[in-house]
Amino acid sequence: MKPRLLTALSLLVVSLAASAAGDAGRGADSFDANCAECHSVAKTLKNKKGPTLFGIVGRPSASIAGFDYSPALKAAGFAWSQEKLDAYVTAPKKLVPEGKMKFDGIADASERADLLSFLAEQK
Q: Do the domain assignments include residue 16?
């Protein structure tokens, strides 16, 4: 492979990886605009209308003690990986059709990446 092409491909891969990571600062703004009315990220694990999202990445679904989850989310049986969170934030009713979430989702992939970057820092 020619050196210029290899360099261009390498830069493209690095650029795509950086954009996939998202910007946590913009993610905080997205959280405030889309999530904060119902969810907290407080270290005290404070629930609101929805469960706390502190430490959400890697946590089993429906696992905060004392929160009244939907039967659908209780039965989901997955952990909140970046991929599951992305799918859920894109279209909550598609991932958990009978869930309680009253949010339609975020269509913009860049905004979701920013939000997921912010949530990953909440630990």
A: no
